[in-house]
């Protein structure tokens, strides 16, 4: 089995996409994966640019180089503060160089004010994030599990609210908060992809009640 095609097939199954739909989102041609699967009787050769675009659609890593045996360590973004209403805890966090981050205004009434997580100023600066654009929003279902598990808090960057086919975005659909991978395969189309839901394509006026709040840049998951 070709390892590249094997990875593509597994990603298609995970995302609930057909080969034609993924191909169209990647390059505008529904036959990309079909042509990749075709038996030509010779060693397979893939177009690197098309493969990179397909990897972005399927959330696969596109990497050339020596085999890597150890992943880079993950830097912790912040710490959980058990009682965000505790002003003493907030003052201590500020003195220690941590930033209190509010809940997003679109969150439901039980998620208002300052979120129970503070972020290191150094961590925010290292990622070139603007604190004024940051807010937390709750994950209310398992539509994007395991990437976003129900009960987690997602850090939203409102400075990056333009769908680009990369990463996960937070949005409201007729006022209901949700998360999805978003792309614009054509100027009047918005592809809404959730890992555990069918692919949705919003056309023209269907996009009016759909509001993109920003990109998810970090997740605080109590299950970790």
CATH topology-level fold name of the largest domain: Umud Fragment, subunit A
| Topology, number of strands | 10
Arithmetic mean pLDDT = 80
**What's the alpha carbon Rg, rounded to whole Å?**
20 Å
The helical percent reads: 10-25%
Low-confidence stretches: 68-90
The domain count comes to 2
List keywords for this structure.
alpha+beta; single chain; Umud Fragment, subunit A; 224 residues; 10 strands; 2 domains; 3-stranded antiparallel β-sheet; 6 helices; 7-stranded antiparallel β-sheet
Describe the model:
This protein has helices at residues 3-15, 19-27, 32-37, 48-57, 87-95, 121-126, and strands at residues 78-80, 98-102, 114-120, 134-138, 153-157, 169-173, 176-183, 189-193, 200-203, 210-220. 28% of the residues are buried. It is built from 6 helices and 10 strands, in the order H-H-H-H-E-H-E-E-H-E-E-E-E-E-E-E. It has a 7-stranded antiparallel β-sheet, with no helix packed on it. By secondary structure, the protein is of the alpha+beta class. The longest helix is centred in the first third of the chain and has 13 residues, at 3-15.
Compact overview of the structure:
This protein has 224 residues and is an alpha+beta fold. It is built from six helices and ten strands.
């Amino acid at each position: 089995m070709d390892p590249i095609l094997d990875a593509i097939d597994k990603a298609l199954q995970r995302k609930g996409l057909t080969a034609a739909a993924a191909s169209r989102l990647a390059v505008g041609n529904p036959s990309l994966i079909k042509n990749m699967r075709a038996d030509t009787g010779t060693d397979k050769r893939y177009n690197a640019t098309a493969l990179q675009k397909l990897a972005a659609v399927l959330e696969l890593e596109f990497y050339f180089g020596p085999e890597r045996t150890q992943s880079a360590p993950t830097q912790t973004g912040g710490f959980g503060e058990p009682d965000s209403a505790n002003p003493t805890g907030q003052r201590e966090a500020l003195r220690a160089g941590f930033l209190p981050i509010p809940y997003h205004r679109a969150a439901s009434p039980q998620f208002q004010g300052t979120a129970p997580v503070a972020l290191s100023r150094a961590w925010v600066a290292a990622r070139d994030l603007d604190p004024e654009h940051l807010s937390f929003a709750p994950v209310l279902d398992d539509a994007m599990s395991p990437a976003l598990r129900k009960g987690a808090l997602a850090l939203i960057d409102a400075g990056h609210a333009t769908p680009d086919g990369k990463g996960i975005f937070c949005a409201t659909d007729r006022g209901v908060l949700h998360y999805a991978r978003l792309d614009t395969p054509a100027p009047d189309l918005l592809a809404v992809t959730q890992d555990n839901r069918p692919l949705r394509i919003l056309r023209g006026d269907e996009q009016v009640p759909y509001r993109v709040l920003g990109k998810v840049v970090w997740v605080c998951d109590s299950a970790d």
